[in-house]
Structure formats: structure tokens, C-alpha cells
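Input C-alpha cells:
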């Protein structure tokens, strides 16, 4: 609505709005917006790691074949005079031919030994064909699977033939018929042959007398020497005064000593050639040539230099595999600069003995890398300098800075880790773990956490090199910051994950004791990973479990079960689950411990976080696997009880279809499908088929629970709604499980914790029955798997005489037909899933109630859930023979011992994602931030404009601005505080309307069981990213997102807000309670809630004797305040500033509670009229007689208005003085029909709007007169 548009755009107003937006909305916390609410709890897809060389090779033998024929030039080459003479830096004409040949051979061997000292060298000088053949075959045979290097120098023989044959002495020998110069395809045996040659077939080698004759060999074996000579021969060398070829020979130092000038040049040369190759070559070729074999890598790095030098003399060195040209790469300029800086110092170093100044090359390259990290955009090419960072790790001078930059690079995400591993970072960082330098610890721990988060296979390398000891010492170091200890314990958790060698090594390293000391650390992520690490070290490893028993590890973990952080509680449940899940031999002692742990875990049955409850099901499933026979006995006992339980007569109860007037049921619109991460249990129709989850509370008062036949799987209801073939497809349906829960005679679970151990299995079975009825589908699905698995095994084992003569346990005869209502069916084959119809595990959502007498609509087609298989029953044909084996390949029970929630893998994703990056919501330029700013300005505008209207005073409130027919009878309405959107709940579905445009935005099924109804709704985070909370009268709370827009609504979370709703005050067989006068005690209040956005606290009450307060940040119950009354709570209101809670009760009293005082209260009595109270006074200040048959009342939070709705089909709106300002009896319009009995009403939090829902399905909104708006 456009209100006061001229004021809206005035600068003063905008300024004030911005100020208001800044102060109020920015400071409000957000509920249910953590990663656990927005992400699917699963690990990231593992990237295929190609960095690890599967076939690392060695060159073990080298054949040096020299055909020089010293003193005689070959006939087909005309040499210049003077000509290049030097072979291996020796002038062959300076000594006798034979001596020259031997000296050159010895020199060549020395040059190669610099690169590969351990190889076996064989010289073959001016050989014959037979000698070469013999040499090659013997070397090949001795090398087995490794490489042989064949070096051939044919400067004394004719050039190769057209066929690629090379010459030796006495005759032509086809030694290497596939010389690279011959353009012939390689036969398969030559595929792994790598070849390097000095020039193309049509080219001649350079004859410049300043160069050696074997220029190519010099480049490959003495690169620094030839590179410096070539540098001096360039014109640019004149810029470096005093440097001559003679001076170059005197460069001090050794090639392998990086502190000397010669060693530093060699180091820079290695870094530059490696970098050029990594940036130019395809990754797989780079791995093969530069990382697989040390000698091959050295020769190829030097080959890049050969290409640069020889191309300057019109020669093109060739290779197979062929490389892209690299001679013009920009990094060569960095090489020239490094040579220039080094040579310019030479004269003073040699003549005056001045100290050598180290090259700034590495520092400058690190700076370039740093610039890339800080200045770059998201999507760009990888940094060129990555291989140089690798080289710098070798230097103590630059190591700290290099590790810091490397860590920042790895933090960019898994792609960066994969890139660094492909460069070859792994052996370097592994070697650094041997360093004792304390300053490296934080950096190395960070880098290793990043590597292991992406590739956990490195666990074996770490244990092999004793790397785990490094991280054990970091974890045990109390002076280490918590975040570094967290990374260390994460690394150790990866090392012990499903890896026995790692578990043994860490157990010997005292990991359990170190972890137990850190359980109470204030850092939550550390507590979480310490628990996960403990859970993993004793997973299927009995000696670690007994070590834990000796240290009372399980008892120390109990404290984490009440941790304020749900992920920490989850990790503790995981650790205790694997603690009881060992399959070693059991003693009485270990059984006692398992029972203790199980009963401690059982206390988490009503934890507020579904992540914790899912982990609880898995933990209990480990126990079930361990004590399978005991649980089978319990299961059979429960099944018998359920089967023999009498069924009340249907005549005593009302059919659920009668809950709404039949005569004018609206046509049912199609509901939106809902995606709640796995599925929403839905039935063919909400009224007829969702019989599964009725009254899923614990009966705290004890005694039998009254229930209607719809709860039971009677033969008539089963056949009429499900069709008989379906009933053969599962062992335990939701109905059976629900009936079991309520049939078993027990009192509140809370009183069961101290029971004798022979009944522990019964208690755990009951806990699983409750979890199977969980409002969060993923939890109930997991529990259903566990229960059905045991039920299946129990029924199979209980009737061995009925097994068919095939001898296979996977087939069985039908159950004895004594009771048609019992759902213990031997469906053949494998353990069936819950029936498609009774508990469909789909993403589809059913439609709301159909008109009385209509056939239910057909069920939407089944679609498998996210990442999951179709439920087992869907693999069967619809009609099936009794003894059919069922679908093939599914003969195992569907709860395997490896049931898991993916929590650990999901938690590990934290380390793979960027942790240094500013979160998007804090980045002032991000879209998320801009959207939030827009919302907050809109909020400020709504507050300001509505305040202006309410301050003027509202004298009438009967202008109907919206009317529409809702799909179901409205039971709760709730305005969105800032959007023109209103949520209207009927019994089990929610409809969203845009009241400005008068159009429906969304309609979806809430997922609550039959015989329950939605009794309260709240918008959470209404000022920002809105969520909708729905409360149902079975005590369940569900929270939804993505509603009222184009996306599918998704369930964020759900939990049992009140576990002990009292059936006595609820009454199962009743008409819609909004039609009742509650003062007469018929029907209960259901569940009522009040939400405090400022504190994140949710107050819940209803048909119970307490007000329960939930902390949504911690997702746990923080307080139970006893109401002190014998009747239900019908409404709640809290004052966050003063910790006060006012509760209206069914006995007509209003009680005031102080959260800080617990059970203290003050009490007022209200009798069907409206009273005003001053909080400090026991007596009412004012009493107003309002409408007869009051069914709904609401007070405007800002304006002094309240409205009363009557079952006598009218609404009265009053001001605070008690004056009636409006009486509404008819709908606007031509026919102006009478409004229906009022079922609910609600004021807008800011605007003077009143929403009214009535029993005739209509939903209308009334507002102040137009001139005010």
C-alpha cells in the first residue's frame, strides 16, 4: 500500500529510517540460520586425485654410446674452419685419438653422475653393431621394469638414414629404427619411450667455434656452464662490465650448495624451468616428465634451456612426447636478470674478496605470489609462481613466508589444494614435519589440515613417516592456540579414520589421554573434533576401546551430551556410539558399560536438534547390532502385545472426515510439493491415509491412553485405505509402531533411567519407537530402518519350521492368519520398507481433506528421494504372490552395521572451505548484504508509516481490504510483520496469501500426523530472512523456509517441543476446537507458543503442566516452569526486558511467572470478560463485558485496539476505553452474506489491519478507513 508517499521520499525521513534500521534490525540475532540448517549433512564429493604418481620410476642403467672416430670427419658433413670442436668440454685434437675418446667418455659419465649418481653406467666407445646390441639387451634385461637411458653421440659417423637408422662402426646398424627424426608411428612397445634429439632431420648442428660441438649434450648435462657462456656471447652482456668467458670459469661455489653463487644460480635455474614447464605443459604430461623420474625431470628441465639456446642458432631440438615451445616464456627474463645480478658481482668477489650478495629472485617471486593472492578476482588462472613457492620451502631464509603464503593459497578451496599437490608440494611438507622449529607449527598444522580435508589418503604417508607424532605434540601443547589444536586433532581424526595402522600408531602415542584432557576446552570446534577423534580411534578397534574404559572415557564424554553447541553433542553421541559398537567378544564388564552408555544416550530422545537425534539413532543401532538376539526377543514381545491389544469400537469415536462441515467444502487446490532434505512423509490424502504418527508423545501420567480406531491397523481400515497387497510389503508400519509405543505399559522415559539392566533392551526399543515417530523425517526414517531390520530378523528366527525347502532364509511362509490386524507379514524376499501408502517416503505432499464421500485423489507418482534408492516396497509389483522372492539384490536387511549420518564428513568440509575469507554477509559489497540493507530500510519504513497512522488514532476498523476462500477452515492466522503476506493454517496445511494483490502465493502440507492439528504459528527472523514455525497439538514444532515464493518449501528443523502433552485434556475424538467454548472444558488448547527474537527464546506450553523454554541458538530446553494449575495453558505472552511470562489457563486464571524465579507466580482470575491489570497489583484495573460466545481475541501491539470474535458470527473491535469502534457482521459486496462463526483472528504487528478466519472457509482482512491510510 502506498502510504504518505510525499513524506516517504523526504530526506529527513529517509535519514531517520536509516538510523532506525541500523540500531534495531542489525542487532537482532537470527535463528536457525547456521550451516547445519541450510546444508545437507553429508561430505563433499571427493575430487579424483591425480597428483599421486601411480608408477614412480627410476633410471637404473645408462648406456653412453660415443661414435666420434676422433680425427676423421664424416663424409656427408662439410665443417667450417675454424669449427666447434669441444666434446664434453674437451678438445679431442689436444691428445691422441684413443686417449681423447676415453677422456671424453669419462667426462660424459661424470656429467651424468651429477644428476643420477646411483645409476649403473656403461660406456661403449666407437663400438661395433654386435657390441651395441649386446649392451642394450643386457641393460634392458637387468633393469627389469625400470628405465634405461641410451645416450648416442654420432659426430664421427654419417647422419642417420632416411629410415631413421643410426650408424656405428663396420656396417649400418638398425639399433634404434624409431629415431625421432624418422616420421614413423611408434609401435606399442615404444609407447613409453622418451626421446630427445638435438635438431630436426633437415637441420645441421651449429659450428660456431665459441660453442662446444656437443652443444645439446652440454645443455642437458652442464646447463649452468653453457647458459652463462651463452649469456656472455649475447650483445646484452656488454652491459655487465668486466665479465669475460674466462671469468665465468672462476665462479666460486658448488652446484649443490645453495649458499654459494654457483649453487644459487643452479637453484634459481631449477625453479624457473620447473615453473615454465608447469605453466605450459598439460598436467598429465608435466606429471610424467617432471615428477615421475628424477633423471628424466632433470634432463627435461635442461631441455627447455637447450631449446632456448639452440633456437638462437637456427636449430630446433625435438622430443617425443613433443612439448609446446617454451623459449619465449616470460620467466626467461627473470633468469637473465638473476644471471646479470650474479655476474655483475663477480669481478669484485674474485679480485677483492667481497661478500656475495644473494639474489632477490625468490623474495620477488614470493611478492608476486602475494600480489596474486591479495589482488586477484575469484575466477582466474592459477598463479605462475606456485612451483617457485615449492622450491623456496627448501630455504630457511624464506621458509616461514613461503609457508604462510602457501597456507593462504590452500585456503582458497579444494581446487587450490589439488593444484598444489599436482605441483609436487607433498614430499616437501612431509619432510618439514621433521623440523623442530616452533614457529612453523601453526603453519604446518594449517597446511596439513587443508591437504587432509581434500585428500584423506595421505593418512598412510603420515603414519609411515611418523608424521602423526608431530600433530600429537601440537595437540598436547597447552600453549598452542585452540584453533591450531583443533586442526591438529582434525588431522589425527583423519589418520585414525578406518585405518588400523593409524589407530595403532596413535594409540601408542597416547592420543586417547591427550584428547580426554581437552574435552572441556572452551573452544567448541575443538571439543567437537576431540569427540570425533575419540569415536574414530576406537571404531572397530578393541584395544583402543579398553584403553578408553581404563581412562573412563565414556563417563568423561557424558558431559558433552549437554553441551550448548548441537554439533558438539552430535560428536559426543557419535563417539559413544562407536564405543558401544565394537564387535569384539563381550564380557559382563563391557556389557554393563554398554548398558550405562545406552541409558545416558536415551536421555537425548527429545533433543532440540535433528542432527543430534539422527546421530542418536545410529549410535543406538550399533547397540542393536551388538545385542541383536536380545533385541529380537524384545521385538517379538512388543509385536505380540500389539497384536493382542483390544480395539475400541469405532462407534465410540468420530471419523476424522467429520472434522469440517461437509456441505460447502471447497474444491481442493493442488498443494506444492515439499522438499525437506530427504522427504516429507505424506500419505495419499492427509485425512484418510496419514494414520501413522498419532499422539507421538510420552504418556507422563501413566495408565492406558485413549485412542481412536484410526490409530490402529484394523483389518477394515487397512483394506479400505491401503488395499490388501500393500500390507504384505512391510513388517512394521508406522501404525504398528505407534500402537506399540502406546500399548506398552510404561511411564515417562525420564523415570526409566535408573532401571535394572535386564530391561535396558526394552527401554532402548521404546526410545527407537519414539524416534520412529519423530517430526523430522530423516530421523524417523533412520529409526524405521533399525526397527524393521530387527523385526524382520525376529520374525524370521521365530518361525524356522516355516522356511521353504530351498533352505534359504530369505524366503518364508506367510504369518499365521490368527489376527488380520497384525502387521507382522512375511513378505518373502527381503525386509520390506514401510508401505508406500502408509508412510510414503517421497518428496510429494498430499492434498488436504477431500469432500466427504469423495474418492481420495490418486497418489502422485513416486520419485526417489535425494541421493537415495526407492523404498524397498516400490521395487515390488503392486500384486504379488505370497512366496515370491521379491526384488533381487535386496536380500540383506536394510540396516547394515555401517549406518551413518555423514556428520563427520560434513564437519570435515569446514577445513576444506576458505576460513580466512570474509563471509559474504559481512562483505559490504556482496549481494547478500545489499539485500539485507534493503530489507532493513523497508522495515524502518513500515514501522515509521504505521506508527504515524496509529498515533493519529483509529476510530473505525471495518474497511474490508481482502477476502478470499481458504482451502481449509482457518485455525490460525499470522501476518508477516513487513511483507504484504499472511499465513493461514488449517488443520494440517498452510496457505500463504498476498493481501495487497489478493492472490494465493503458496499452499503446502505441514507433515503433521492425522488426529493432530496446527494450533500456533510464528514468524522467526521476520525482519530479515523469514522462517515459519508451526506448532501442532501433539507437541511437535516444525520450521519451514522457502515458502510463499517460487521455490519448494523446505523443512529446516523439527523437534518435539512438548513431549508430555496430556491426552486427558486434549481429547482425541472432538470437533475442531475453534467451534467449542473452551471454558466448558471440551477439547484442549493444543500447543501455544511465544517467540522472542531478541533472545532467541521460544516459550511453549499447552495441554501440559509446565511452560517449557527452548533456546534456539543451542537447540535445547533451558527451563521448565511449573504452571501450578490443573488445567491447560491457552495462551502465552512474554516480556523480554523483564523476563516475565503471562499465561492464560483453561480454568479462567491468568498467571504471571518470572523466568528468574522459576516456580513463583502471581495469579488473576478472568471470567469470560476482558480485564486490564497493572502488573504490580493483584486486582484488575478495568473490566469490560464483551461479546457472547467469545472464540477468539487479539490485541494490537501498537494501537490501543483489541478485537473479539464470536461463534455467533460477528466481530467486535474495541479501543482501550472499552468503546466499540466497529461491529462486523457481513462480508462486503453485492450479496453481502453473513460472516461465519469466527475461528481465529489476528492483528498486524504494525499496520491497523485485522485478519479474520471463519468456519465457512473465508479469510478476510479489515483495516482503518481509507483516508487514514
Amino acid at each position: 500500500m502506498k502510504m504518505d508517499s510525499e513524506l516517504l521520499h523526504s530526506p529527513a525521513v529517509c535519514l531517520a529510517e536509516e538510523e532506525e534500521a541500523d540500531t534495531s534490525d542489525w542487532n537482532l540475532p537470527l535463528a536457525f540460520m547456521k550451516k547445519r540448517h541450510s546444508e545437507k549433512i553429508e561430505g563433499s564429493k571427493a575430487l579424483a586425485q591425480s597428483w599421486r604418481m601411480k608408477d614412480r620410476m627410476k633410471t637404473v642403467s645408462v648406456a653412453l654410446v660415443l661414435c666420434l672416430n676422433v680425427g676423421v670427419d664424416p663424409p656427408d658433413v662439410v665443417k667450417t674452419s675454424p669449427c666447434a670442436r669441444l666434446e664434453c668440454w674437451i678438445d679431442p685434437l689436444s691428445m691422441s685419438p684413443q686417449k681423447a675418446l676415453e677422456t671424453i667418455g669419462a667426462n660424459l659419465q661424470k656429467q651424468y653422475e651429477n644428476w643420477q649418481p646411483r645409476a649403473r653406467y656403461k660406456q661403449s666407445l666407437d663400438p661395433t653393431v654386435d657390441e651395441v646390441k649386446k649392451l642394450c639387451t643386457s641393460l634392458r634385461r637387468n633393469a627389469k621394469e625400470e628405465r634405461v637411458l641410451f645416450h648416442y653421440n654420432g659426430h664421427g659417423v654419417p647422419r642417420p638414414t632416411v629410415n631413421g637408422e643410426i650408424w656405428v662402426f663396420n656396417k649400418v646398424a638398425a639399433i634404434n629404427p624409431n629415431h625421432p627424426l624418422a616420421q614413423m608411428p611408434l609401435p606399442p612397445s615404444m609407447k613409453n619411450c622418451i626421446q630427445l634429439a638435438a635438431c630436426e632431420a633437415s637441420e645441421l648442428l651449429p659450428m660456431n667455434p665459441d660453442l662446444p660441438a656437443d652443444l645439446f649434450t652440454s645443455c642437458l648435462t652442464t646447463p649452468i656452464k653453457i647458459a652463462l657462456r651463452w649469456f656472455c656471447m649475447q650483445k646484452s652482456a656488454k652491459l655487465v662490465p668486466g665479465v669475460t668467458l674466462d671469468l665465468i670459469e672462476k665462479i666460486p661455489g658448488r652446484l649443490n650448495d645453495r649458499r654459494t653463487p654457483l649453487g644459487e644460480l643452479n637453484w634459481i635455474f631449477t625453479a624457473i624451468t620447473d615453473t615454465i614447464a608447469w605453466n605450459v605443459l598439460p598436467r598429465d604430461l608435466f606429471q610424467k616428465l617432471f615428477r615421475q623420474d628424477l633423471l628424466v625431470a632433470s634432463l627435461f628441465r635442461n631441455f627447455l634451456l637447450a631449446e632456448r639456446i639452440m633456437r638462437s642458432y637456427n636449430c630446433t631440438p625435438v622430443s617425443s612426447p613433443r612439448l609446446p615451445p617454451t623459449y619465449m616464456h616470460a620467466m626467461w627474463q627473470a633468469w637473465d636478470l638473476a644471471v646479470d645480478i650474479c655476474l655483475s658481482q663477480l669481478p669484485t668477489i674474485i679480485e677483492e674478496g667481497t661478500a656475495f650478495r644473494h639474489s632477490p629472485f625468490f623474495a620477488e617471486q614470493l611478492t608476486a605470489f602475494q600480489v596474486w593472492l591479495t589482488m586477484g578476482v575469484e575466477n582466474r588462472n592459477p598463479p605462475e609462481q606456485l612451483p617457485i613457492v615449492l622450491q623456496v620451502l627448501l630455504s630457511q631464509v624464506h621458509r616461514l613466508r613461503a609457508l604462510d603464503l602457501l597456507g593462504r593459497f590452500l585456503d582458497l578451496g579444494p581446487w587450490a589444494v589439488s593444484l598444489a599437490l599436482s605441483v609436487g608440494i607433498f614430499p616437501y611438507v612431509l619432510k618439514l614435519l621433521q623440523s623442530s622449529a616452533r614457529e612453523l607449527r601453526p603453519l604446518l598444522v594449517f597446511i596439513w589440515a587443508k591437504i587432509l580435508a581434500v585428500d584423506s589418503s595421505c593418512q598412510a604417508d603420515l603414519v609411515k613417516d611418523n608424521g602423526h607424532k608431530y600433530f600429537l605434540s601440537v595437540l598436547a601443547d597447552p600453549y598452542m592456540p585452540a584453533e591450531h589444536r583443533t586442526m591438529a586433532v582434525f588431522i589425527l581424526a583423519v589418520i585414525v579414520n578406518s585405518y588400523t595402522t593409524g589407530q595403532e600408531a596413535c594409540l601408542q602415542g597416547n592420543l586417547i589421554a591427550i584428547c580426554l584432557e581437552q574435552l572441556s576446552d572452551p573452544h567448541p570446534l575443538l571439543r567437537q573434533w576431540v569427540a570425533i577423534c575419540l569415536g574414530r580411534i576406537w571404531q572397530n578397534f578393541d584395544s583402543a576401546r579398553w584403553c578408553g574404559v581404563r581412562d573412563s572415557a565414556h563417563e568423561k564424554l557424558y558431559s558433552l551430551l549437554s553441551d550448548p553447541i548441537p554439533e558438539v553433542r552430535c560428536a559426543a553421541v557419535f563417539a559413544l556410539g562407536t564405543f558401544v559398537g565394537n564387535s569384539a567378544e563381550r564380557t559382563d564388564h563391557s556389557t554393563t558399560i554398554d548398558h550405562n552408555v545406552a541409558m545416558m544416550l536415551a536421555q537425548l530422545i527429545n533433543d532440540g536438534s535433528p542432527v543430534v537425534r539422527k546421530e542418536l539413532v545410529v549410535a543406538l543401532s550399533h547397540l542393536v547390532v551388538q545385542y541383536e538376539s536380545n533385541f529380537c526377543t524384545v521385538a517379538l514381545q512388543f509385536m505380540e502385545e500389539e497384536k493382542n491389544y483390544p480395539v475400541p469400537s469405532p462407534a465410540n469415536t468420530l471419523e476424522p472426515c467429520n472434522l469440517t462441515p461437509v456441505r460447502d467444502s471447497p474444491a481442493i487446490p493442488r498443494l506444492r510439493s515439499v522438499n525437506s532434505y530427504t522427504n516429507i512423509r505424506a500419505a495419499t490424502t492427509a485425512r484418510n491415509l496419514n494414520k501413522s504418527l498419532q499422539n507421538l508423545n510420552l504418556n507422563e501420567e501413566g495408565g492406558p491412553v485413549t485412542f481412536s480406531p484410526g490409530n490402529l491397523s484394523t483389518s477394515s481400515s487397512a483394506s479400505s485405505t491401503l488395499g490388501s497387497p500393500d500390507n504384505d510389503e512391510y513388517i512394521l508400519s508406522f501404525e504398528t509402531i505407534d500402537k506399540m509405543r502406546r500399548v506398552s505399559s510404561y511411564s515417562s522415559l525420564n523415570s526409566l533411567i535408573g532401571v535394572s539392566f535386564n530391561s535396558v533392551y526394552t527401554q532402548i526399543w521404546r526410545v527407537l519407537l519414539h524416534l520412529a515417530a519423530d517430526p523430522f523425517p530423516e530421523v524417523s526414517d533412520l529409526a524405521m530402518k533399525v526397527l524393521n531390520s530387527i523385526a524382520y530378523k525376529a520374525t524370521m528366527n521365530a518361525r524356522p519350521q516355516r522356511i521353504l525347502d530351498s533352505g534359504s532364509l530369505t524366503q518364508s511362509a506367510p504369518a499365521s492368519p490368527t489376527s488380520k490386524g497384525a502387521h507382522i507379514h512375511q513378505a518373502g524376499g527381503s525386509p520390506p520398507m514401510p508401505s508406500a501408502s502408509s508412510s510414503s517416503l517421497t518428496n510429494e505432499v498430499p492434498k488436504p481433506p477431500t469432500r466427504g464421500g469423495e474418492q481420495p485423489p490418486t497418489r502422485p507418482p513416486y520419485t526417489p528421494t535425494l541421493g537415495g534408492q526407492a523404498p524397498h516396497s516400490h521395487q515390488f509389483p503392486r500384486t504379488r504372490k505370497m512366496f515370491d522372492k521379491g526384488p533381487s539384490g535386496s536380500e540383506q536387511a536394510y540396516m547394515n552395521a555401517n549406518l551413518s549420518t555423514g556428520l563427520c564428513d560434513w564437519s570435515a568440509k569446514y577445513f576444506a572451505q576458505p576460513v580466512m575469507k570474509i563471509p559474504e554477509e559481512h562483505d559490504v559489497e556482496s549481494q547478500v548484504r545489499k539485500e539485507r540493507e534493503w530489507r532493513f530500510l523497508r522495515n524502518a519504513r513500515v514501522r515509521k508509516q504505521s506508527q504515524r497512522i496509529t498515533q493519529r488514532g483509529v476510530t473505525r476498523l471495518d474497511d474490508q481490504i481482502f477476502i478470499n476462500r481458504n482451502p481449509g477452515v482457518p485455525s490460525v492466522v499470522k501476518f508477516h510483520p513487513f511483507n504484504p503476506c499472511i499465513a493461514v493454517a488449517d488443520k494440517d496445511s498452510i496457505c500463504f496469501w498476498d493481501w495487497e494483490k489478493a492472490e494465493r502465493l503458496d499452499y503446502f502440507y505441514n507433515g503433521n500426523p492425522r488426529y493432530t492439528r496446527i494450533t500456533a504459528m510464528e514468524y522467526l527472523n521476520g525482519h530479515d530472512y523469514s522462517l515459519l514455525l508451526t506448532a501442532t497439538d501433539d507437541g511437535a514444532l516444525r520450521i519451514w523456509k522457502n515458502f510463499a515464493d517460487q521455490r519448494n518449501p523446505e523443512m529446516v528443523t523439527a523437534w518435539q517441543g512438548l513431549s508430555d502433552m496430556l491426552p486427558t485434556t486434549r481429547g482425541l475424538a472432538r470437533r475442531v476446537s475453534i467451534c467449542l467454548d473452551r471454558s466448558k472444558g471440551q477439547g484442549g488448547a493444543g500447543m501455544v507458543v511465544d517467540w522472542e527474537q531478541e533472545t532467541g527464546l521460544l516459550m511453549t506450553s499447552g495441554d501440559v503442566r509446565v511452560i517449557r523454554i527452548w533456546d534456539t541458538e543451542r537447540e535445547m530446553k533451558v527451563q521448565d516452569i511449573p504452571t501450578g494449575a490443573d488445567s491447560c495453558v491457552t495462551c502465552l505472552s512474554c516480556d523480554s526486558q523483564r523476563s516475565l511470562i503471562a499465561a492464560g489457563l483453561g480454568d479462567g486464571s491468568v498467571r504471571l511467572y518470572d523466568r528468574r524465579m522459576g516456580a513463583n507466580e502471581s495469579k488473576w482470575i478472568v471470567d469470560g470478560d476482558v480485564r486490564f491489570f497493572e502488573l504490580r497489583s493483584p486486582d484488575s484495573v478495568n473490566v469490560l463485558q464483551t461479546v457472547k460466545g467469545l472464540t477468539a481475541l487479539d490485541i494490537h501491539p501498537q494501537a490501543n485496539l483489541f478485537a473479539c470474535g464470536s461463534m455467533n458470527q460477528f466481530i467486535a473491535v474495541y479501543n482501550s476505553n472499552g468503546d466499540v469502534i466497529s461491529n462486523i457482521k457481513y462480508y462486503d459486496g453485492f450479496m453481502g452474506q453473513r460472516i461465519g462463526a469466527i475461528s481465529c483472528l489476528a492483528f498486524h504487528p504494525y499496520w491497523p489491519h485485522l485478519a479474520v478466519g471463519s468456519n465457512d472457509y473465508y479469510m478476510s482482512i479489515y483495516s482503518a478507513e481509507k483516508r487514514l491510510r
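The radius of gyration is 41 Å. The mean pLDDT is 79.
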